[in-house]
Amino acid sequence: MGQLVDGQWQDVWYDTKSTGGAFVRTTTKFRNWITPDGAPGRTGEGGYAAEAGRYHLYVSLACPWAHRTLIYRALKGLDDLITVSVVHPHMLSDGWTFDSSFPGATGDTLFGLPFMRDIYTKADPHISGRVTVPVLWDKKTDTIVSNESAEIIRMLNTAFNGLTGNTDDYAPADLLPQIDALNARIYDEVNNGVYKAGFATSQAAYDKAVYPLFDALDWIEGILAENRYLTGPRLTEADWRLFTTIIRFDAVYHTHFKCNRARIVDYPNLNGWLRELYQVPGVAGTVNLDHITQHYYYSHDTINPSRVVPLGPIPDFDQHHGRDHLPKA
Ligand SMILES: N[C@@H](CCC(=O)N[C@@H](CS)C(=O)NCC(=O)O)C(=O)O
Asked: Closest residue (by CA) to atom 13 of ligand 1?
C-alpha cells in the first residue's frame, strides 16, 4: 500500500495522525468523459468519443467503487465493447498488482505491466497521488480518461447507447434530483462510512462514522419497506451505488471494519432488495466473494496483521427476494 510522489512509488499507509484518527478520502485526478461524439463532458477535456474496442477498464473485483463500473458494463451490454483487466486481490507494499496467480486475476491484458501504478505513470510520468481502481483507459490516446467511478457509471449509462441500442436509463432526468440527494447521504454515511469506521484509529473517529452508518441503514430499511427501490418503482443508479457496499457488508465490513451493530440479513427489506439486485441478469457474474474477502482481510495489515481470512458467512443471494408485492416500473 502506498502512493506515487512525482512518479516515484512510496510505500506508506494512510496518515490518520494529522486528522485525529480519521480516514479522509482524497479526490480523484482524471475527470474526463466519454461522450457519443467526443464533445467535452461535465468536467475535463473532450476527445473521448464512444467507440467499440477503444476503452479498457482496470478493476479490482474486491473494490466496491470498481464494482459499480463492472455492473454498468454488464447492464448496458458493453461486455464486447469495453475490455477489462482484473488486478490481484492482495494490495500490499506494491499497491495493486497484475500478478495473475489468483483465480480471476487477469494480469495487465493491454501492456503486460507488473503494477497498477505503472498505468498511472504511463498516463503521467510525474504523477503524484494514490493509485486507485477503477481506471478507464483510452487505447487511442494512451491515457486515463477517468478514475472516478461515480462519473464512469454516469457516462456508461448513456454514451454508448448509439452503438449498443441499449437505452436502459439508470439516471432518468426526472429522478435525478432524488438520485443525487440519496447518493450524497449514502456516499458519506454508507459507501464511505464503512471505510471511515474501519480505518479509524481513534474511538472518537470510529464513533463518528459508525453511528451515522447504522442510522442510514435504518433510514434505508424504512424506504425499502414502502418502495421496491430507493426512488420508488424504478431501479436507478442510487440502488447500484448502494448495492456494491451492501453485498460486501456481512462478509467483510461487519467483522473487518467493526460495523457490527447489525448484519444485512437482520434487515428484511434491505436483504430482499439486495437479493433482487443480485439476481438481475449479468450482475451475479460481477460479484466475486473470494476476491472480496481475500482483499480486505489480507491487505490491511494495520487492521488484521495475521492475515487470517475468516470462514463465514456463506450468503445465499439466490434465494427468492420476496419483493414482488411492491410495484415495479
Ligand atoms: N473515488 C474513487 C475511489 C476509488 C478507491 O478508493 N479505490 C480503492 C479500492 S476499493 C483503491 O484503489 N485504493 C488504493 C489506495 O487508496 O491506495 C472512485 O470512486 O473511483
From this structure: 132
Most informative mutation of 133, 146, 156, 187 for ligand 1 (most atoms within 8 A of CB): 133
Is residue 266 situated within a structural domain?
A: yes
> Cα(37) to centroid of ligand 1, in Å?
29
Residue type, 72: Y
pTM of the entire structure?
0.95
Which atom of ligand 1 lies closest to the CA of 66?
A: 20
10: how many CB neighbours lie within 10 A of its CB?
Answer: 10
What's the number of domains the chain is made of?
2
Instruction: Find the domain containing 143 and state its range.
Output: 3-164
Q: Report the C-alpha gap between 290 and 248 in whole angstroms.
A: 11
Q: What ipTM was estimated for this complex?
A: 0.98
Helix residue ranges per DSSP H, the chain:
64-75, 116-123, 149-158, 161-164, 176-186, 193-199, 203-226, 237-248, 254-256, 268-278, 289-299
Q: Per-residue pLDDT tens for 168-219?
A: 999 999 999 999 999 999 999 999 999 999 999 999 999 999 999 999 999 9
